[in-house]
Write a sequence for this structure.
């Protein structure tokens, strides 16, 4: 009889690669038809994440995670990276999500069946070899342009993407690094809650974004003068605002789970100013937002039940005031260039699929290019492939409120992977046609 403890192994191919690279994970040398427990763990931004699933080995004692379904555990359908995206955070008091660091994610994999065991390591990188990074702090016209700049290998010139975060503020350095790995010089632009920028989103001038666009064109010297803007959630709202107000400076738009209207501060305002506090200004004057003089807005629709709070219900209530909605609507028909909207059909923060359809119909009526990618069944947290997709209820980084982002782990994982490819395809076509 074979001593399986001598030959059992886990083969990961490739062992180290960017987080968006397809892997193969095979287990070999276990007893035929043995139940094999596969556990995975990693530390992401200091917090522990784990998963555990049970598989039935084949007649040859092998498993292929791209082919074989777990019979129990963290996920249910064949998925080569299911052991990663099904991870749950075990230290919620320390969780940072999405990660704010480009440090690689080192995943320890352990497989066991009776006295037989094997182990392996899978490393997911955000920084491709040769990608360069520098922190940006530039004084421009009385404002400090702040962010993190990632540049692809090689001399360039490179097309440029400016990416903006949502209502938690800060920047998403890993996403910017991944854009750079795909050949785009990416500025993760800080708007608030970041060194050099205001702590809160209140009274934010659109001129800050204009300065960022001008700086990018003048300093980064993009290939074919291509500068795309991209943003998630409130950053998606920002992307549409920039396109509408500075159309000549924007080559393409990617708006993840965006809003077609301007909103108040909601969760990102200074203490004591309230959810309806003013955010956007232009020329020193406030721009109207949806919650001002709104006859149907009802925050209690979201907050009258115990947490986690599903804010979508409140945002839907506000859209029923047609006059208020039209006053606050972002004039997306002013922008003539290519636009991609990425939405989540079970968005718990705000109704991003319905919101995106409003943009689509307005642009279609004007005969303007637009595409809409729907992450079916997914929630608000649309990120990039093979991040854990289980963090559905999370305390907001600014307000501390426990919010329901929506979605399910499998749907979120599929949305992360599929939307990532859709965005890269869109940008490649837009940059080629520019």
């Amino acid at each position: 009889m074979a001593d399986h403890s001598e030959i059992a192994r886990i083969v990961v191919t490739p062992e180290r690669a960017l987080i968006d690279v397809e892997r193969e994970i095979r287990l070999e040398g276990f007893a035929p038809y043995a139940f094999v427990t596969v556990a995975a763990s990693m530390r992401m931004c200091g917090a522990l994440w784990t998963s555990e699933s049970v598989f039935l080995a084949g007649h040859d004692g092998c498993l292929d995670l791209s082919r074989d379904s777990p019979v129990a555990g963290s996920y249910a359908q064949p998925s080569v990276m299911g052991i990663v995206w099904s991870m749950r955070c075990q230290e919620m008091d320390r969780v940072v999500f999405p990660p704010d660091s480009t440090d690689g994610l080192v995943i320890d994999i352990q497989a066991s069946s009776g006295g037989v065991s094997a182990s392996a390591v899978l490393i997911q990188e955000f920084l491709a070899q040769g990608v360069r990074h520098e922190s940006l702090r530039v004084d421009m016209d009385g404002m400090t342009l702040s962010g993190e700049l990632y540049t692809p290998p090689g001399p360039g010139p490179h097309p440029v993407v400016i990416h903006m975060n949502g209502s938690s503020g800060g920047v998403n350095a890993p996403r910017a690094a991944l854009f750079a790995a795909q050949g785009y010089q990416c500025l993760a632009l800080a708007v608030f809650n970041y060194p050099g920028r205001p702590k809160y989103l209140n009274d934010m001038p659109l001129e800050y974004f204009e300065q960022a666009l001008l700086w990018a064109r003048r300093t980064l010297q993009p290939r074919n003068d291509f500068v795309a803007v991209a943003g998630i959630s409130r950053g998606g709202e920002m992307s549409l605002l920039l396109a509408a107000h500075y159309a000549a400076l924007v080559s393409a738009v990617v708006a993840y789970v965006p809003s077609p209207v301007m909103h108040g501060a909601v969760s990102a305002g200074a203490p004591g100013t309230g959810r309806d506090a003013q955010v956007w200004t232009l020329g020193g004057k406030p721009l109207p937002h949806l919650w001002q003089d709104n006859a149907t807005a009802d925050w209690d629709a979201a907050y009258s039940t115990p947490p986690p709070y599903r804010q979508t219900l409140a945002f839907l209530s506000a859209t029923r005031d047609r006059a208020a909605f039209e006053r606050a609507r972002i004039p997306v028909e002013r922008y003539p260039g290519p636009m991609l909207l990425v939405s989540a059909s079970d968005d718990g923060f705000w109704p991003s699929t319905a919101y995106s359809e409003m943009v689509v119909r307005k642009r279609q009526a004007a005969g303007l290019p637009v595409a809409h990618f729907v992450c079916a069944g997914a929630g608000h947290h649309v990120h990039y492939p093979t991040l854990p997709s289980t963090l559905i209820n999370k305390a907001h980084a600014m307000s501390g409120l426990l919010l329901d982002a929506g979605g399910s782990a499998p749907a979120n994982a599929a949305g992360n992977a599929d939307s990532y490819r859709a965005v890269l395809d869109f940008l490649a076509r837009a940059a080629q046609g520019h």
Summary: The radius of gyration is 23 Å. Residues 1-5 have pLDDT under 50 and may be disordered. The CA atoms of residues 213 and 219 lie 10 Å apart. DSSP finds ten helices and 23 strands in the chain.
